[in-house]
Amino acid sequence: MSITTSRISDPILKKIEKTVKDPKERQFLIDLLERELSYIDKDKPEFRKEFKIIIEQRFPFRGKDNGA
Amino acid sequence: MAHDIRIISVELNNYRQFYGKQTVEFSSREEGFTTLIGENGEGKSNLLNAINWCFYKFEPHGKKDANYSAPILNSTYLLEVGEEKTARTSVKVLLQVGDEQYSISRVLTVLVHKIEYEKLSDGEKMMKMAMFADDKVPSGCEILHNESGFKIKKKIRGESDFHEITDDYNTVINQILPRGLSIFFLLDGEFLEKFWDNFESVENGIEQISQLHLLSDAVEHVDDMTVRHIAVNTGSEEGILNEKIDRHRNYEKSLDNDGNEAFSQKIRWVKIGETQKEEYYHTTGKPRINDLEHDIKKMERRSQEISRSIGNVNAASAKVLTDSLETNEKLLDTAKKDKKRTEETHRDNLIGDSAYVFTKNALEKTVEIVQGFQKQGELPNETRKTFTNDLLEREYCICHTDLKSNKVGAEEKNTARAEVEKARDIIAGDVGLDISVKMRYSFKDKVLDDYTGFLEKTFGDPAEKFRTAEKAEAELQATVKGIRTQLGSAGDAKITALIDEQDHILEEIKTAEEKIHEIGVQLKANADDTDACKQKLIRLSAKDSRAKKVNHDMQIWDKAKSQLEKILEELKEEVRVQVQDKTWEIYREIMYGVEKFKKFEIRADYSVILLNQQNQNHIVDMAAGQSLFLAISFVTALREITGYKFPLVIDTPLGKIAGTSKYNLAKILPSHLKGEQLTFLATDTEWIAEIPDIGDGKDRGTKSFGEIIAEQIPIKHFRIKQDKHGNSTIKPAKLEGGKLVVD
Q: What is the per-residue pLDDT for B578?
């Protein structure tokens, strides 16, 4: 589900831009925070499963060359 | 979270005192502000409640009584419906969120059977209420759940119709306007006035509106991802390293070996006399630090309360006063002794040495005579005796006569020596001249050589010292009396008890801060060791592909965690300081000309300091108007700093505000909230009445608060009017010639 207008605030995005130089790592953090947005009213969000999907998408394990 | 949100309209259907269908169409940002004018009790606060109820099924505003029991369904309507018919109340809010519109509605439908009443002591009857889950409806009504509920529909720009969304409605509304933030966009006067009673609102405002909670939640969750779920042999090197990592993690999160939250035996701090369930501190790590920091804030709060109890002094000055009293009492004691001593010296000198003054001429004559004797060789006998003894010891005279003893039996045969011995014995018995010589030295040295100095030293100086001591004692008496008066309002015994409590609290704070430091040091050491363990694990797992995958993920999570932590810490500091500075800037503009404070600070733990000119923190005992203005300044600053544009509805903010500040507020709000959707709920007096001239020398003409704002920005007015049955209606109106005219 997605609420297109629900988004991470500009100060956070700017701070990520400034702090994280690698675009891949930057996008990884944004993905995680966007997931967090959907947990706002949830006491015990099921984040483990969703976070695993995100890491596999952004940093898939490829044996010798792990892409990290 | 959405960033550009405005309320298009609110539609009430038989909601509380609003009878029938009442609609308010709000001005957009571009169109200006919206104002609803109504007297107290006519429904202003219930408009806020209606929005809250619609969004969150929550009605927090304007209730003085916790047992508030007026039915949510309008009473007149309910009675009109009649028995065995359905009655319905609803609130619908249209929201513009970026390019999307949301129709958010909540409906409560009941089947009316036979409404029950209870009799009051004066014979009147009152509708009985009954609770069904979290709904309160009149007894004798049955909730029709299939016809009640919460619904959100949406349409995007260009679409003509709303369509139902498939997502969870509560999640959606909390994403658009989180419930925790409702207090920051639906503001009532009471909330604003009590805003600074605790600093949770400050913390929530900064953390929530800046989305810092998103970052801290992400850190927590990412941290959870770093837990290794890979089986290794206990006792193997990997096993030992993993155990170490787990141990450090348990310390950090205050967990026991089974992963359950662990608490110490130490009971958390509570205010003396406060009855509440005993709570225990977490054992270790960040939870323990959070507990301690939370309690430190509570202790500081109590410390400020103690100061208020002692009088209009703050904690520091109460302590300073008590210390000062103690010090000054000691000084007074010394001053009393000094006064006594100098008084005695002065008196003794007067009695003992005044004779010298009266006999000065006689003394001079005496000295002259004695000096004459001395010039003639009449040395003092004491000296002559010493001289003869010396000759006898040497056994020869200065004229070389032999004085060696030649005794035969008791008789001295050396006649020269016998004569010298005889002269010595005569001298020894004659002390008259010696006394005269001593008197001569005494008179001359003490009195005559520097007679003026003698007079000053003997009479002038002691008299001056006595006068100084007398004055010092009087001043200290006055100081001690003054301090006692300042401390005296609560009575000595009570003050002593409060000061003791204050001392105890300060000691507790110190201990808590030391504990926080100690845990911080341990956490740092554990973090370093955890890093080292993880590096070793990576090396050890080089040949195990599953372990390699786990380590690969762990490295990424670790890095993400440290990046998120860095972003969180930096942002937290930046936003806090920016909000602090902006709040202070706006507040000073509002209070221009009547400013009594010189510094405003939001500290890292979100406690707040507002210093007056005497460097006392007055955040806890501001006047109602000051508190309200500072809160409005804070909320306005939050919006400016975070760029988060949500609608702002302010209920009755102006009742307790003096003329100058009210004038300043009317002047600056349109510029600070330019482009924001602002709605006022105000009484006639607050909005339309001329701002009184309080004699501050400012020529502000004869305009009302509403007129001053209307000069700067268009305002859409509504009149809330109540009939004799207590039912309210909302009608569009215009401000004309200082009066509100219903269209």
A: 94
Interface of A with B in 31-50 (CB under 8 A): 32-33, 36-42, 45, 47-48
Other C-beta atoms within 10 Å of B329: how many?
Answer: 14
Domain contains B722:
no
Selection from B469, B430, B432 nearest residue B338 by Cα: B469
Q: Judged by CB atoms within 8 Å, which residues 83-142 of B form the interface with A? A: 97-100
Residue in this structure with the two tokens 């400016």, named with its chain if needed: B640
User: Average model confidence (pLDDT) for chain B?
Assistant: 84
**B536/B410 same-domain check:** no
Residues A55, B549: C-beta atoms closer than 8 Å? no
Same domain, B400 and B477: yes
Do B534 and B445 share a structural domain? no
Secondary structure element (H or E) that encloses residue B380, with its range: none
Task: Residue B217: list chain A partners with CB under 8 A.
Answer: 36, 39
When divided into structural domains, chain B yields a total of 3
CA angle B581, B668, B43 (to 5 degrees): 105
- Please, is B298 exposed, middle or buried when counting C-beta atoms within 10 Å of its C-beta (0-12, 13-18, 19+)? middle
| Choice between B329 and B213, residue whose per-residue pLDDT is larger | B213
Helices B315-358 & B360-375 angle (0-180, nearest 10): 60
**Whether residue B359 sits in one domain with residue B255:** no
C-alpha–C-alpha distance, residues A28 and A56, integer Å: 10
Q: CA nearest A20 in B: which residue?
A: B563
Closest listed residue to residue B44, CA positions, set B486, B582, B655, B508: B655
What length is written for chain A? 68
CA angle in degrees (0–180, nearest 5) for B51-B53-B59: 100
| Residue A7 in contact with partner chain B when CB distance is under 8 A | yes
Tell me whether residues A33 and B218 touch, CB distance under 8 A: yes
pLDDT at B594: 66
Task: Give the B window 305-334 contacts with A, CB below 8 Å.
Answer: none
Place B23 in a pLDDT band, splitting at 50, 70 and 90: very high
**Which B-chain residues 551-590 have CB contacts (< 8 A) with chain A?**
552-553, 555-557, 559-560, 563-564, 566-567, 570-571, 574-575
- B150: domain range? 5-19+43-183
Prediction ipTM score: 0.91
Which of B571, B582, B645 would best serve as a mutation to test chain A binding (most A beta carbons within 10 A)?
Answer: B571
What CATH number does residue B101 fall under?
Answer: 3.40.50
**Partners of B157 in the beta sheet?**
none
